[in-house]
Amino acid sequence: AISSRSLPSYPLPSHYWFTEPNKARVAALTFSDDSQKATSLILTQATGLQEPKPLLSSERLMFVVSGNEQAELVSQLISLREELKCVNEAADSKLAIATLMHSNLSHFQNAQHNADLGANIVIQAASIDAAIQEITAVENALPKVMADNSHYKTPAGSCFSPMPQSKGGVTFVYPGVGTVYPGMLREFHHHFPQLFARLEREGNLKEMLQADKTYAEDSQEMSLSELAIAGVGSSYLLTQLLCDEFKVQPDFALGYSKGEASMWASLNVWKNPHALIEMTQTSPIFTTAISGELTAVRQDWQLNGDESIQWNSFVVRSDAQAIEALLPEFPRAYLAIIQGDTCVLAGCESTCRALLKKLGKRGIAANRVTAMHTTPALSQHSQVRDFYTQPLFDELPKHIRFISAAGLPTGAPINIDSDSIALSIADTFCSTLDFTALIQSARQQGAHLFVEVGADRQTSTLIDKINRSDNVADQYCTIASNAKGGDDVVTLIKCIGQLITHQIPLSVEPLIQGLEQQITTAKQLSGVSQGSAVNHQGELV
């Protein structure tokens, strides 16, 4: 079997060339001349993989400075500044900066298990001059940050937490439906070719990311089921990246709405999450009952076949109690989600607008047709439960505490067995989601550092707002591993930098390997290298 395409005369898109499972990549290149004769060249992919593109470069700098006392940290920052100035004047500054980063990160990698390491300052910048400015900014902020024991970070990604309490409280947060966006994660295949090759061997990566629509040249409308699949897919890929490549281990996990399904799919609990792709595409739950025709709503409202439904949902800045007090007057409007200083109101569009008018609030229309978290969804409880009753791995993660909205208000953990997981998802799916209470419960259970693992950073923003309104923002931090509109790699490196300053055990080996590759290449180009290195990884795609 082959996965083939003709190479066009215009530049190819930069996204990954996805293949069907167990198919090789084959390309046909056709030349024609004035005599009307055509010559074709058939290219077939061999077993080797392309070398990973380095994550760090002269345009993406990262350094870690460690020390126990303020004076020691300042001394280390001064030393780094002087080294950067020397690098700036070097004949081959690209080789010099790669060598300096390699030395710095290798030292950190070897020393991070040392209990006396102290605090970590991370410097990130887009150039040597910018890195020097970042060092100055950190130096100026250092006395106050240490006095207040606060968390400091700059827009470029430099950060510092003097005495973080995050170890043991790393919480992976899985976003819900609708955070996926065109072109998401499109750069990662250049930097993690082995990961992409493995994911393609394990299942249909193209379908998992809904690549035909996610990476289409023109923006494409996605159905609820397509959004759900791509949402789980992006979370699955980012989880593998953080856990397998950077060796980050979460202590807790939770999901926003359908993010609970992403949590079980991504963290080695469900044995075959790929099987859910086709099921989601064809299940009446997602295609007609709570989306599309809204048959569950028709049944609940007892509508005739010729009566139409104008469904919408609105984000409104209001407390839940004010909305709940009005709901009896507006029986076709529902409080779907409570999330910090906003709520999501869903239902009959005209009814919702009438409720908002009486409330004296403006709502932002989401223009998405889903009856999740509303009363009509209750009729789908048993179907949702059956849908998510999935086989589990024989070896299950013992170090992660899984938190579900179904465990509220007590915060009881969900037993890791097939029936309990399915019931918890059905309970969450078919009830009002109190995301505020879920985050408060997670904090009480020991969650300290919330790491959003999925497309964009919408859930991180919500958690920040919840923590601020509870006046605990100085005690808890949120980190996004991805951001719409940002550079995939820069956002990932910022995420790793924050984990480092929070003293979370991890590996920076992917960063070091890329730098080693750059150093070798630079030496070869300058004629320093004796002999050449050949990278043949022998991985079948």
UniProtKB/TrEMBL annotation:
Q: Which Gene3D superfamilies does the UniProt record give?
A: 3.30.70.3290, Malonyl-CoA ACP transacylase, ACP-binding, Malonyl-Coenzyme A Acyl Carrier Protein, domain 2
Q: Where is the Malonyl-CoA:ACP transacylase (MAT) domain?
A: 173-486
Please give one Gene Ontology molecular function term for this protein.
transferase activity
InterPro entries named among the record's database cross-references: Ac_transferase_dom_sf, Acyl_transferase_dom, Acyl_Trfase/lysoPLipase, Omega3_polyunsat_FA_synth-like, PKS-FAS_Synthase
Q: What PANTHER family does UniProt report for this protein, alphabetically?
A: BETA-KETOACYL SYNTHASE FAMILY PROTEIN-RELATED, OMEGA-3 POLYUNSATURATED FATTY ACID SYNTHASE PFAB-RELATED
Q: What name is this protein filed under? A: PfaB family protein
Instruction: Give the species this sequence originates from.
Output: Vibrio lentus
Q: What is the lineage of its organism?
A: Bacteria, Pseudomonadati, Pseudomonadota, Gammaproteobacteria, Vibrionales
